[in-house]
Design brief:
Blueprint (H helix, E strand, L loop, with lengths): L20 E6 L1 H12 L3 E4 L8 H13 L9 E3 L2 E3 L12 H19 L4 E6 L3 E5 L4 E3 L10 E5 L2 H18 L5 E6 L9 H18 L6 E3 L2 H8 L15 H15 L2 H17 L9 H18 L8
Parallel strand pairs: 1-2, 1-5, 5-9, 9-10
Antiparallel strand pairs: 3-4, 6-7, 6-8
Helix pairs in contact: 2-3, 2-4, 4-5, 8-9
């Protein structure tokens, strides 16, 4: 008897290798996968604009990175004693113009350099809803808790989404390494504040737009992350207490599905050993000066050294 509908990810013809670079951008689920790759000591860069959710803003971010286009004071606003970029997450906010500009422009420079050596891109869309900042007539990535009277909320049209996805792919294929693999996902995190019907409509528009664009390009793929959580792990025990975000167990399950489909055998072994080393390094000894702990550290150092011989980039 079967008691669940398992969603499979087809095995990729191109495998993610241990020296590959992975760029990720989008919702908080992009960060979850990027953090796991980083723990596995794969070279990653995640969200140089911070967490962003809609295809328009993600495309604008990629466009800025592609052109290495810096921000200036006119691109920022001041609210509640903070200097803010409406294209960025609130972690870039500061009290002074020069500090905010330093933060956002440093990430643009870093992102541009990283993209030029990138083999894999993971894009996670979270919503089709966008907010227009009325004083500047500008679609924003983040409202920064500015009062709602300054914004107008609407759904992106199908054409707006497909245009954004198309341009994003075109820019990435030009700046990244030859045969870059681009993986699209839709975040399984439900935006319940939009309303349940509205959230489902928002997600459906994202899925439809991605599948309209995929046939037009080589090396672009759809990862059924949304479907795995909605249809495979269809139980609230796979959610956090907020009943919205996937639990650690659910993220781990999706990660294992992703690895089985996209990692080479060498990458799988490399990542799994690095996970074990990272877990060992988290161990807090009762006595750091004890001979037993020193022996433990010596063993870990040897394991790290053995792993380091497999890659050119520095690990741990």
């Amino acid at each position: 008897m079967k008691f669940r509908t398992e969603v499979q990810i087809p095995v990729s013809d191109t495998a993610l290798e241990i020296d590959d670079r992975v760029f990720s951008i989008g919702s908080c689920f992009a960060s979850e996968i990027s953090d796991l790759l980083k723990t596995g000591q794969i070279q990653t860069l995640n969200n140089p604009f911070g967490t962003i959710f809609n295809p328009f803003s993600i495309n604008q971010a990629v466009k800025r990175l592609y052109h290495s286009e810096f921000y200036d004071e006119d691109d920022l606003i001041k609210f509640n004693e903070e200097v803010i970029s409406l294209d960025h997450h609130s972690k870039f906010n500061s009290r002074f113009v020069h500090q905010t500009l330093e933060k956002v422009n440093a990430e643009i420079e870093l992102g541009n350099r990283f993209l030029q050596e990138t083999n894999w891109v993971i894009i996670t869309y979270g919503t089709s809803f966008v907010y227009e900042f009325l004083p500047k007539k500008k679609l924003v990535a983040n409202c920064h808790k500015i009062p709602g009277k300054y914004f107008e909320k609407r759904l992106l049209t199908h054409l707006e989404i497909t245009d954004a996805v198309y341009e994003t792919v075109t820019l990435l294929k030009d700046i990244c390494k030859k045969n870059v693999q681009i993986l699209f996902t839709v975040s399984p995190v439900r935006h319940t504040k939009d309303g349940m019907v509205e959230n489902n409509l928002s997600k459906a528009k994202l899925i439809a737009a991605i599948h309209d664009i995929l046939p037009e390009f080589e090396n672009c793929h759809y990862l059924p992350v949304y479907e795995i959580l909605m249809d495979d792990l269809r139980d609230y025990r796979f959610y956090n207490e907020d009943l919205i975000h996937p639990s650690r167990q659910a993220v781990q399950y999706i990660w294992e599905k992703f690895g089985s489909a996209y990692f080479s055998d060498e990458t799988m072994d490399f990542v799994e050993e690095n996970f074990k080393i990272a877990k060992a390094l988290d161990h807090k000894p009762a006595d750091e000066k004890s001979p037993k702990h020193k022996e433990f550290l010596s063993t870990i150092e040897k394991r790290i050294a053995a792993q380091q011989t497999k890659v050119k980039h520095k690990i741990f």
